[in-house]
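Blinded run. Sample ID left blank on purpose so nobody reads anything into the name before looking at the predicted structure. Input follows.
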Amino acid sequence: MPKKFRFQILAAVLFTFLFQAFIIPGFAQTPSQGAKQEAKPNAPKVFMKSSLDSAALRKDIAYVQYVEGEAEAQILVEITSQKTDHGEEFTIALTGRREFSGVDNLLRYTADPSQKPEDVQKGLINVLKMGLLRYVSKTPVADRVNIAFLDQVKPTSVIDQWDFWVFSFNVDTFIEAEASYKMQELDGSFSANRVTPEWKIRFSLSASHYKNCYSYSDSDGNSYSYESVSDSRYLNGLVVKSLDDHWSIGTTLAASSSTYTNIDLKMSLAPAIEYDLFPYSESTKKQLRFMYYLGLDSMKYRLETIYDKMKEILVKEGLSVTLELKQPWGTISSTLAGSHYFSDLKFNRIDLSTEISFRIIKGLNLNVYGSGSRIHDQLYLQKGELTKEEVLLQRRQLETTFNYYFSIGLSYTFGSTSSNVVNPRFGSSSTIRVTS
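Blinded prediction complete.
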């Protein structure tokens, strides 16, 4: 092929490449795209405190600017989560700054346990879209935003066929044996819970049977055998009504029986009232709860107590203070509780417990827990001398003035992360501490 033609072909290819790369895109840009680029600098600046996929955010919510530093942001978005009886509830807190100062928003999204992580993220982004529109509507970008209604989302989709009741049943058995030792253990439990923002209803029933058998022979050929049996049964109920964003009232009903604590039957009723210094709507960030209860205990003992009682009715009162904080470095929860019997104020108890979770890296936490009690309310202790077997085999509760517990460990969470409960009122436990 002559040089002249090779040069013409090469020039044509080069011209085609330059035309496609630079000239066509310039003409192909639609007016709406150009307007979008012009409007982008006027879009609100958002700083995200969450683990949402940044690429998905930029794709689905393109009408805001995402900044890397909190100092330059006009809107702070913080997403926290907590496990509930119906799945995982996310709280999306939007805080306005600068020209949006004082314009705050708090939204919630509950993910079903069966949802895939990508579906959960999609639902969160949809809720975040609605929250950000409040700020975008005050900027020039609002002219470029179109709102659509998906008519397939109907109010009936939130109706729960179980009326928010969650049931659980569990049975465990364990047997271990060797030539001189045999152990049998049987445990069972049942629970029924219904938790909504207005009500918290919890009911649980549990029972356990524990039996140890020991046998040995001495050098003279004498044979000995010991048997230790422990039985316990517990029934607990809690009903809490939300009054407003700070106050709640509730009551516990409880019944128990335990060979270890010398209780044949104990029945308790304890109405209570709770006040949270911070609004309950901020429970995923901070709580400072004060709770007071007045309890009535009907006691029937298996054997006569050290106070010469076989049965009695006791009235007690208790007060507790709980502080829970969730910070970027982790979470902390601490409770100080005290109670006493009215029959004699010297029968009292003070409990202090603290749990701290330090976030090392995403999903990896260092957990520290400690608790201690000052105990002066063991009215149920069995009368009479303790045998060596009862002490070594822990067949009877021993008299004490204190106890303490400490633990430290690592935990790793992957997938969908979670923390405490959707309804923080009266704490996460199923009952008020009205028993010794």
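Unblinding after everyone has recorded impressions. Residues 283 and 424 are 7 Å apart (CA to CA).
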